[in-house]
From TrEMBL:
Main location: mitochondrion
This protein's name: KAT8 regulatory NSL complex subunit 2
Keyword Nucleus: yes
Keyword Iron: no
Quaternary structure and interacting proteins, as annotated: Component of the NSL complex at least composed of KAT8/MOF, KANSL1, KANSL2, KANSL3, MCRS1, PHF20, OGT1/OGT, WDR5 and HCFC1.
Keywords: Chromatin regulator, Coiled coil, Isopeptide bond, Mitochondrion, Nucleus, Phosphoprotein, Ubl conjugation
Coiled-coil spans in chain: 86-113
Biological processes, Gene Ontology terms: chromatin organization
Record Pfam families: zf-C3HC3H_KANSL2
One GO CC annotation: mitochondrion
Domain of life: Eukaryota
Compartments, record wording: Mitochondrion; Nucleus
Domain KANL2-like probable zinc-finger: 1-54
Amino acid sequence: MALTRFCQMHILSDNKQKLYKACNYAIKSPPTGPILCGKPILRSTVPSYCALHFQKAEKHVARALKKAGLNVSSTSKLAPKFHVVVAEYTRQIQNKRRAAQKALSENADMKEDISC
């Protein structure tokens, strides 16, 4: 890493350095809390993602926009409003939660039938 005596894996261990921070991409989201990537990136980077996770985040946004009916590659269309992106993302999350809740209720019904 530039301007430091630590390697890339240990740059965040140096409490005196001010140039780098950890990537904030949530790799997993267990019930105990999200597990973050943690790779060092420049502090000035916005959003706080390493190059790999920035590409993944762009793909997720492009997929959400496509599902909302907005083609990102088309230059003739206007850029989507932020509320459209948020609404589509919220809809996707709600659909996943409904599917999980339905699976849990079906599982509980099966257990109830077995115990009777």
